[in-house]
Structure formats: structure tokens, C-alpha cells
Amino acid sequence: MFTKVTEQDSLHDDLDKKSVGELLREMNEEDQKVALAVKAAIPQIEKLVEGIVPRMKQGGRIFYMGAGTSGRLGVLDASEIPPTFGMPNTYVIGLIAGGDTALRNPVEKAEDDPERSWQELLEHNISTLDTVIGIAASGTTPYVIGALRHAREFGCLTASISCNPDSPVAAEAEIPIEAIVGPEFVTGSTRLKSGTAQKLICNMITTTTMIRLGRVKGNKMVNMQLSNKKLVDRGTRMLVEELGLSYDDAQRLLLLHGSVKKAIDAYRES
Known about the structure:
By secondary structure, the chain is α/β, with parallel strands linked by helices.
């Protein structure tokens, strides 16, 4: 039987009567459960990444699908891939029910349409090489269920990220990922532990995928975009460490080639 753990009463009561310190300590106590819940989901996350990598090597993409907080987390993770790993923004795409307006303001009933999500994927020329990941803390969002159902029938790799066991969303995914973090500190507020768990899992999926695709060398972001002084300085110091150049020579080389990896390759080929 499907039980919404995310809707169960908080283990903490009388929040409005507690001091700031008490509230913070009790929230932190709950947050410590998140990493353990995500740890339990690692085998499923591993299975997903092992499926994504060969598809992306052939031109496949990742689509995150979600509504509300879950949708925003997918868009956030997708938006961080180009600056961090130097990948075009067409490889990891976040779609949220209600479109970009919903990133800042709720769009009434947008998440209740199970067909709209598939139409959006068709507008992006969905391919069988693509991976569709539905994010829904409750595990019941129609927008996400529709995307996964159609994508799986179409032949895409599908996965879900939810925080209730045996949810309808998980039933639609080839690879269900469940982080059961328990009742929220504020009853039903899944922007708390559930949102944190989803963010951690998205980080793990894309970071591990990018490493396996060769976008990291050692432990360095050698393909990051040089979009500000801090990142130019970071890249310069990487080259100083890797190639033994002076800071000024390393910076000139970096700016000439536009990324740490390209600079290293060009230096070693010269």
C-alpha cells in the first residue's frame, strides 16, 4: 500500500513556541538523516549513471522533469553543467511544469496535466538515446508521471527521484530512486529534507556522469567556463600546478585557449 511519508506529522511539535536555537538544532537533527537516506539509494543511482554515460557518448541528453520545488531543483542542476563542466546547455535540460514563470511564481494547476510534459519533450525532439528523470518528492505529480510513462514507451531510459516508498512515479520509471527521509520538520514542507535529498542526488548523477565523460582531470574542473576573474584565477593556478609555468605565463596560455584542458593539450603538443 502506498504511504505518503512526506505528509506524515512532524516528529517535532509546538514549533511556534520554541527559541531560534531550538528550531535550528532540531532542523539540523532532521537534516542529518538525509545523507543516510541518499546512501541507501546509491545502487539505483549507480545503475542510472551506468545507463546514461554510453547514451551521452552517442549524443543523448538528460531531461529533468518536475513541478514546484522538484522542478526548480532540476532546472538548477541543469543550469550548473555548462559553467562547471564546459558542456553546451543542450546536454542537460531541466523542464518545469508551468515553464520558466514557475521558477519564481506558482502556476496554477500546471502540474496536474499528465500530457503537457510529453508535448514539451516532443518539442525538444526527444530521442531514444535520451534519459528522462522525473523528480517528485510526493511521487504523485501527474506532470512527471505522464513524462515518464510516454518516455518509457518511446524507448528512452527513465528514472525517478522521489521521497515516498513505492510511489506512482516510481512505478513508471525503469530505475526508481527513492530517498526516504521521513516526515518533514514542518509537516508536509518537502522543500526541506526531501528537497535536500533530491539536490544531493541530482549532484551525484550529473557530476559522476561528467567525470565519466572526461570533463574532469584528477579532481579539477578543467573544462569550466572562464566567466569571471575568480574562475580565471582558479584555471591559472591549475596550469601553474600542472605545467610548472609562472602565473603570468599560465594565465596568458589559459586565456589564449579558453579552458584548462585545451591549454594543457596545446602546451604539450607544442
